[in-house]
Amino acid sequence: MTQVDPAKDGAEMSFEGRMSYGDYLGIDAILGAQHPRGDAHDEMLFIIQHQTSELWMRLALHELDAARVCIAQGRAREAFKMLTRIARIFEQLNSAWDVLRTMTPSEYTRFRDDLGQSSGFQSHQYRLIEFAVGNRNRAMMQPHAHRADYTERLEAELARPSLYDEALRHLHRAGLPVPEDVITRDLTQPWAAHDGVQAVWEIVYRDPETHWEAYELAEKLVDFEDYFRRWRFNHVTTVERIIGFKRGTGGTSGVQYLRKMLEVELFPELWHLRTSL
Length: 277
Ligand code: HEM
Ligand SMILES: N[C@@H](CC(=O)c1ccccc1NC=O)C(=O)O
Known about the structure:
The chain is an all-alpha fold. It has one domain: Methane Monooxygenase Hydroxylase, Chain G, domain 1 (Up-down Bundle), CATH 1.20.58.480. The protein is built from 13 helices and no strands. α3 (43-72) runs parallel beside α8 and α6 (124-133) packs parallel to α7 (148-159). The chain is globular and about 65 Å long. Bound molecules: protoporphyrin IX containing FE and N'-Formylkynurenine. N'-Formylkynurenine (NFK) is lined by residues 50, 112, 115, 118-120, 243, 248-250.
């Protein structure tokens, strides 16, 4: 059996006083952040599943911020890359459900009581993503009232144009007939389907060659919403499989609440136009 000596190949073997892999990545902080409350075997899976989701959400927010800046500065093509990456992140989050699904109701019951009233419903990053893409609901701020830092970030997000607002402003600047009330709307309000906006997207979809950039932007948005819907669907199906119709630890009706959320449309006109094309 040949044994490789990486040092002979030039591998650095001494990190006394030098930045190593773990130093750069903050590995000790990450690996020191799993604190199961009990001794149920599956609690570690549950914790890591959520922590990795939060890390991916962190990246999604980073990309969403950059994508909006690019679109606002008229560099929509640069934003396409970020939007593709965001869709891929959600694809990754969707695959992750396959790991969690290996947990049965019997196994989850062993530690569910230890969760108290904590719930994914209180994920501030998830709420930031929803606000960033346009699903804005001030009521969702309440569970964060005890954290001034989260509240401040969520408020700032509500005051900022959403990804969809930026897309529509971009079309407006490009000379497409986006109604003025869309550009001057109260940003803190959730987006509501608008006939005038659908009419604009219809112009784009009826003649993609003339409006190629707007057409590509639209398809990137649809792609993102497609993956996001799948995330919601995977969540509610996993929840039903594991806790049935029990109330959620966060206090909602559980599966019934999550099913209602499946009806949310982020970019309604982009879906509705398909019927009228
Ligand atoms: C055993 C697995 C899981 C169960 C049983 C479960 C259950 C639930 C329930 C019942 C709710 C409704 C709120 C409540 O009353 O608690 C909820 C919300 C939520 N969960 Fe989970 N969940 C699971 C895994 C996950 C994972 C892995 C994530 C990823 C971060 C997640 C993120 C969320 C989010 C973001 C919400 C809020 C959804 C919204 O308001 O639209 N959950 N979950
Ligand atoms: N809401 C879940 C508990 C739960 O899943 C959860 C608990 C703490 C932290 C994150 C969670 N994930 C998603 O809601 C339940 O009712 O069983």
